[in-house]
Amino acid sequence: SQKIEQNSEALNIQEGKTATLTCNYTNYSPAYLQWYRQDPGRGPVFLLLIRENEKEKRKERLKVTFDTTLKQSLFHITASQPADSATYLCALPPDDGSARQLTFGSGTQLTVLP
Amino acid sequence: DGGITQSPKYLFRKEGQNVTLSCEQNLNHDAMYWYRQDPGQGLRLIYYSQIVNDFQKGDIAEGYSVSREKKESFPLTVTSAQKNPTAFYLCASTGQSSSLHFGNGTRLTVT
Fold first, then answer.
1. Would the CB atoms of B31 and A42 count as touching at under 8 Å?
2. pLDDT of residue B40
3. Which residues of A are less than 8 Å from B10 in CB distance?
4. Interface of A with B in 29-88 (CB under 8 A)
5. In this structure, is the dihedral angle defined by the CA atoms of residues A9, A46, A41 and B81, taken in order, positive or negative?
6. Which of B27, B97, B98 to mutate to probe the A interface, most A CBs <10 Å?
7. Model confidence over A48-65: pLDDT tens digits?
8. What is the pLDDT of residues B51-66, one digit of tens each?
9. How does strand A72-77 pair with strand A62-67?
């Protein structure tokens, strides 16, 4: 069955450093992968989508890579700030693409320490 | 501003009672979804609807029911048959893009 794993439940880093979060998947050949941010007690907010034919995508201080050979996506936040503290979720569509039913990882809780 | 409104934010019920969670969107999106989130777990799909008057079961539909009588509304009923109803429930919608727009959730506690 399809499975998504995010590298760790919690990650603490110092302000100004680069945070790197990992999303690994098995038994998938997704056409794209998405990253969301979720703050406590709120719904996730869409951040970035990267397609299978894109190696890298950037948005301001965010960078996402997608390695379909390794079946892995890396999510980087450069020059991290305490306001970046949140849980980050990766999500993938089903293989057949017949419906937009995303499957989510359990998330990585990032804390940026001042 | 367009968005998804879930109400109430917190809901408390006694075991054995059915409860309905509200989800309204003004984004003119065709597809709507209900997810459940438990601590340490990813979001799990309960039901989804791609068009008015049509809906399909997700991965964990047992003990839940939905209706989609209007494009804007997709209420979820948690029935007494749901074994572990206490959770954070999230409603979402999609339009032309594949990204989901989420509401801010309803935290249901059943005692």
1. no
2. 77
3. none
4. 32, 34, 36, 41-46, 49
5. negative
6. B98
7. 999 999 989 999 999 999
8. 999 999 999 999 999 9
9. antiparallel
